[in-house]
Design brief:
The complex is a heterodimer of chains A (395) and B (305).
Chain A (H helix, E strand, L loop, with lengths): L9 H26 L5 H7 L1 H14 L7 H25 L4 H25 L10 H4 L7 H30 L1 H6 L4 H19 L8 H15 L3 H23 L7 H19 L5 H25 L7 H10 L10 H22 L4 H6 L12 H14 L1
Helix pairs in contact in A: 1-7, 1-9, 1-10, 1-11, 2-4, 2-5, 3-4, 3-5, 4-5, 4-9, 7-9, 10-11, 10-12, 11-12, 13-14, 13-15, 15-17
Chain B lengths: L2 H7 L1 H23 L3 H22 L4 H26 L3 H23 L8 H6 L19 H4 L5 H18 L1 H9 L1 H6 L4 H40 L5 H29 L8 H19 L9
Helix pairs in contact in B: 2-3, 2-8, 2-11, 2-12, 3-4, 3-5, 3-11, 4-5, 4-11, 8-11, 11-12, 11-13, 12-13
Classes of the chains: A mainly alpha (395), B mainly alpha (305).
């Protein structure tokens, strides 16, 4: 261990555990929003909690309390987030505005209202110590055991509800009409998903804060999507990535006194995303670069063989290197026996393709064929013989 | 309220608020029509890491280097969104969410680490700006508006925003035709040989310019709100783009001035001692205007298919 020895104190362990469970719940919940193509709606929901938080605080103070009772704050934030959602839905369905404008408008005006109320609270005598502004970006410095337990229990509940609903949710996300035909209540499922997003936001207020919680709802599902095309795999992967981000991020942020926990958790998740973007099998940068190189190699080989068949010498260095490695030409550029047969085969396939292109019947086949692959894999020997006879007739 | 009090303390912030609001609302009209409203959201988030990085590099709160840093961050974010979208073939909204939250988290981390050296930069400042503190100490009353010595003491944000707004207006007039064509019918614009991708990137860059200049004075809440709310409300008032833009300018001006006055004097009217966040109030007022147009606007209904 280096200079900053990692000591797993009880408090750190608590925060890590809470953040880990929160990450799992956020990853699973976010998957549905992402597959439903509404990832950024979560942003509106989380920002819209602020006026309710402040309102709950003010009301509790007005009723004579300290305003710090968590239940009151949670209830307030749930109410204002629900109002925000209703506003988004109203703007989207009753006016000509599109969903993105509705999300942005609700997000900014609710958050603005929340900031106004926050400054009001900071001017109140009870508000100075309330620390409500810490909920914007989260703070784990003074986290109590009850807080961590509540976060973990809340997140675990969200996770379990998500588990129960995930089939109905993925079905709805992929094909709304099919889900409806199966008798699923689509608006109810949407509402349940949004309630889960709200629950994740509220559970994450203390650790991640309401500005950055949306990152935990979006980054893990997008990362999981890079690894798999199947919804059945995406949500567990997203849950695992979210959980690991929470656990590792909370651990890392305990290494130094003023590392912001929420930001570190988000950056760990972003690290998972970046690595996946590089190395993921189908959608990764490396994989797509390799696919590109492979295709390039095949085009060069084919063009080289066709040139050989017509008696040209290969001058282009890359093509020459390829054919030499395959043993089709010697170091001095002269064609070998093996090269001869490969060149003939390539020329024959090219002639067959030219014949197929002249026949409208094969248009569908040609639209799928890359013009390079061996035709003997696509046609039976008889079919090829038939084509060759036609070719001879023509010549 | 007398001129001697209003001109130095309230006039500059109101003017700055109005200029910032209009500068954001103008490109906002096109972002809303192109269903790219959330690009504005993304840009205003990534301005934070840009400004913090610029500060860490130059070790000074110099306005121009911050503008440069924020602009670079916005460009970086837009390019990243585009590259990741192409490589991964994932829906752009989600990609945007990944990029802007990551960069914002980076900004928060850098900020918390550098705030140990007690600089005048914190997350709340980034969110809410410091509109209230942009006062004009040299002014003695309305007469100072004609006094060159006093005018030299205006907060520098005011001329900077005025310049930005003028530039945006000039660009809007110059590129009016290609911009509107590619906004309403991208395929048609492309068939005319217009560089639609360049136009789209140019619009985003103008939005970034507006966001970056406004951010310093008014914070990111107003920037997001002004990109979207006035333009969206204007869209519910009219079918014509020209009048939509005029409506949005009107709504932006109304939000900024009414919001500032309500935040500054509203609490006093109801017997409280301190004013509340002007930035938050301006955003809330713009949302209220949108709510009113959504209920009463003459063109609020969705097109019937």
């Amino acid at each position: 261990m280096g200079i900053m020895a990692f000591t797993l104190t009880y408090n750190v362990a608590l925060v890590m555990f809470g953040a880990g469970v929160l990450g799992v719940a956020a990853g699973v919940t976010g998957t549905f929003m992402f597959l439903r193509k509404r990832a950024l709606l979560s942003d509106a929901i989380s920002h819209a909690t602020l006026p309710g938080l402040c309102g709950g605080f003010m009301l509790m103070v007005a009723l004579g309390g300290t305003g710090r009772a968590l239940e009151g704050l949670l209830l307030g934030s749930a109410i204002s987030a629900a109002l925000g959602l209703l506003a988004v839905n109203f703007l989207k369905s009753r006016t000509r505005l599109s969903e993105d404008a509705a999300i942005g408008a609700v997000l900014s005006s609710f958050f603005g209202l929340g900031i106004v109320m926050l400054t009001l609270i900071q001017n109140m005598s009870a508000g100075r110590q309330a620390g409500l502004d810490q909920l914007l970006l989260g703070s784990t410095a003074a986290m109590l055991r009850e807080d961590a337990e509540m976060i973990a229990i809340g997140a675990a509940l969200v996770f379990m509800v998500g588990l129960v609903l995930h089939r109905a949710m993925t079905l709805t996300a992929f094909d709304e009409n099919f889900a409806r035909a199966l008798g699923l209540n689509v608006p109810l499922i949407d509402a349940a998903a949004m309630a889960l997003v709200l629950a994740v936001t509220v559970a994450g207020l203390k650790i991640v804060g309401l500005i950055l919680i949306v990152a935990l709802l979006i980054i893990p599902p997008v990362t999981a999507r890079l690894w798999s095309n199947r919804a059945a795999y995406i949500w567990p992967i997203a849950g695992a990535i979210g959980g690991a981000s929470g656990l590792i991020g909370a651990g890392l942020s305990s290494l130094a006194p003023d590392l912001p926990t929420g930001a570190i958790i988000v950056l760990v998740a972003a690290g998972f995303f970046l690595i996946s973007l590089l190395v993921a099998p189908a959608r990764g940068v490396l994989a797509s670069a390799m696919r590109h190189r492979k295709f390039q190699r095949r085009v060069h080989r084919r063009q080289g063989l066709l040139a050989l068949a017509q008696g040209y010498r290969i001058l282009e260095p890359y093509t020459r290197k390829l054919l030499q490695r395959e043993g089709c030409v010697r170091a001095d550029g002269v064609m070998t026996e093996r090269g001869q047969s490969a060149a003939t085969a390539a020329q024959r396939d090219e002639a067959r393709l030219a014949y197929l292109r002249s026949k409208p019947d094969y248009a569908e086949f040609l639209s799928r064929h890359d013009g390079l692959s061996d035709l003997s894999r696509a046609f039976t020997r008889d079919e090829l013989a038939h084509i060759d006879i036609r070719l001879e007739d023509a010549s | 309220m007398s001129g001697a009090e209003f001109v130095p303390l309230s006039l500059p912030p109101i003017l700055i608020g109005i200029l910032a609001a209009i500068a954001c609302a103008l490109p906002g009209n096109f972002l809303v029509l192109r269903k790219q409203a959330l690009i504005g959201d993304a840009i205003s988030h990534v301005v934070l890491p840009g400004i913090v990085l610029a500060f860490l590099v130059t070790q000074a709160l110099d306005a121009w280097s911050m503008l440069l840093g924020a602009g670079a961050a916005a460009l970086f974010a837009v390019v990243m969104i585009d590259v990741i979208k192409r490589v991964s073939r994932i829906e752009v909204g989600a990609i945007m969410g990944v990029v802007f939250t990551t960069l914002f988290a980076l900004g928060v981390l850098l900020l918390e680490q550098s705030s140990a050296s007690s600089v005048h930069l914190d997350v709340e400042h980034a969110l809410m700006g410091n509109l209230e503190s942009l006062i004009w100490l040299e002014a003695r009353g309305w007469a100072s508006l004609l006094d060159p010595v006093a005018l030299a003491g205006l907060p520098p944000e005011l001329p900077r925003l005025a310049l930005t707004l003028a530039l945006i207006i000039v660009l809007l007039i110059l590129f009016w035709r290609p911009l509107t064509l590619s906004t309403f019918d991208e395929g048609y614009a492309e068939s005319l040989g217009l560089p639609v991708r360049a136009i789209s990137l140019g619009l985003v860059m103008v939005a970034a310019l507006a966001a970056v200049t406004a951010f310093d004075a008014v914070g990111s809440i107003i920037v997001i709100a002004m990109f979207i709310c006035p333009a969206a409300a204007a869209r519910l008032m009219t079918d014509r783009l020209r009048s939509q833009i005029w409506w949005s300018v009107g709504f932006a001006t109304l939000s900024a001035s009414l919001g500032y006055v309500l935040a500054g004097y509203g609490p006093l009217w109801i017997g409280l001692e301190n004013s509340v966040s002007a930035a938050g109030m301006i955003a809330a007022v713009s949302g209220l205007i949108l709510a009113l147009t959504a209920v009463f606007g003459p063109k609020r209904r969705p097109a019937t298919a």
